[in-house]
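Sample entry copied in:
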Amino acid sequence: MATQVNMPKLGLSMKEGIVGKWFKQEGDAVKQGEALLEIMTDKITNKVDAPADGILLKIVADKKAKLPIGGLIGIIGQAGEDIGDLLKAAAAPSGAKAAVPAAAAVKARPATVSVAAGGRVKISPNARKLAEENGIDYTLIAGTGPEGRITREDVEQFMSQAPADERPVREVIAYEGMRRAIGDNMANSWAVAPKVTHHVSVDLSALQALRATLNSDVKDTEKISVTDILVKAVARALERHPRINATLCGEEIKVLSEINIGVAIALPEGLVVPVVKQANGKALAEVSKEIKDFAKRAKKNKLEPDEMNGGTFTVTNLGGYGSVDYFTPIINQPESAILGVGRTVETPVVAGGQIVIRPMLALSLAFDHRVIDGAPAAEFLSTLLKLIAQPHKIFI
């Protein structure tokens, strides 16, 4: 008996999904639990496993098809099995909505170019001048004027449809799925939130010493990272400055009771931000375990959409690349603030009247000025700096 492959519900808020890359072709043998295809939502790209052993008899929804939850994507069965009834059901009006290639929306130009006696192309002087100024071969342009004469408008139309960049292309990456979700979210945040960024550096000596002590007798897989401690420190600082843990909803600024810290994780194809829920109430080891689990599953496209919802503040760490000090991270809407973590650099500083070398960590706090003013943001940052400089207080 044939087995349907249906659009899965990948989160409580998911209503539809977009078919991504298929890992199998029609006629291929598949095994239950084997990765079959990718499904894209507005937040993540997730792999869907085959629900049964058999042959992939039919790919009902190809790449870029958009389906509601439960919509038929494909059919697995035995060779020669009759799947006509299932295919009829898939053809119903509520089925997949195929994406329309952008090129299809471009208005077609007339198919012929008018040539006068003697082989001369009919073109107005203004049109000829515009074409020559822009290095355009006007013999390729079809005219819409009297007797097929090329007008200035025809040249302008041709220019608007010509490729903007003719340089050799090494790779074409589709602007869809995770990449488009990131782009749309970042563009929206940049457009709606008047942001301000406070930059500061802090001595990381004490935090590094604490981390070394915590990691002295544990397995490599259980070692605490700087990010783990910073997430816990941010959560404690938000407890003392709750108005930083807020969101703008229409005409109201809501100060949130839960402290849920998003942790940005970079992937080859983009960025995901899973959330450590109620981070202030969790032990450091538990926070560390969650972040490690998020990172591991993110690389396999196994994060659930609900794991990336509900954040109230985000931490994004670029320090590991060793190339970035201060930067302006984009706020993860609908949150109101984000902490950017740069690299740690051995730097000469004055301590106790002496010049000493200390590991200085670069921090950048970006915040939505509609919700948070500069002074409260500075107060929050001051508390965070004290916790980093005296990390034992994170646990008091």
